[in-house]
Structure formats: structure tokens, C-alpha cells
Amino acid sequence: MAYREIIPDQRLRPFVKCYYIYESNSSVAFEDVVYPSGCMELIFNLGTGRWLTKVDDAFQTTPPIELWGQLLGPLPVRSEGKNVMLGVRWLPHGASCFLHDQADLFNERVMDYRELSDTAMDRLHERLLDAITWE
Known about the structure:
The chain is mainly β. The protein has 1 helix and 10 strands, in the order ββββββββββα. Strand 5 (50-55) and strand 6 (58-61) form a beta hairpin.
């Protein structure tokens, strides 16, 4: 498993804490727990595996473009297969500048960001899937 963070450009630093890349190097399934950070996240799923979050008592596959609201407690997650993710971790106040709704409406939720955006986000996701390198 590899994880690295990228510092945002100066223009986005007031809103974005970091970008991050997560890559699982094995197809072995594993479970983990994500703890609250006070930050919302936008995550592009780019691998061939499945990423799941626990809702009530069952794991559910996350959408290709995830919006994570602020977590108020631990969130169990499961990785199945080779996952590749590009994430945007907003500062606690930063997401409100990019969303049309109040940020607290998304608390404790992992949802499909495509429900909130136009087709430009789908086109960006396709371009990321076609990219050969992170650079």
C-alpha cells in the first residue's frame, strides 16, 4: 500500500488541506477504520478494485466519485482488489466554498458526488482514468 500527500497550489491553500494518492499494491482484501478529521473529502476511484464503507451493519460499494461529509465517529472501510484513489481533503471550512448546500447536510455520509455536480466532473474522472502517470 502506498499513500502520499501533495500540497495544493498557493491559490487553493486557503480551502484545500492536501491532495492525496492512495494505491493498494495487492489484491488481498482488508478492513480498516477511518477516524474523524473535521475535513470533507472528494475522492476519485481510479483502480479496478472495490472500496466499501459500512452503513448500518453492511458494507456498501462507494461510487466512482465520492463525497465524504465530516465524520462524527469512526467509519469502517474495506478494500477489495487493487484500488487507486485521488483525493481532495478540504480544510474544515473549505468545502463550503465549492458546494451549494450547507456542509453539515453531508455529515456522516459518503455519497455520489455526481448527484451534486454537472457532467464536467464525469469528464474529469474520465481524464484521470486515462492518465498514464500522476504527473
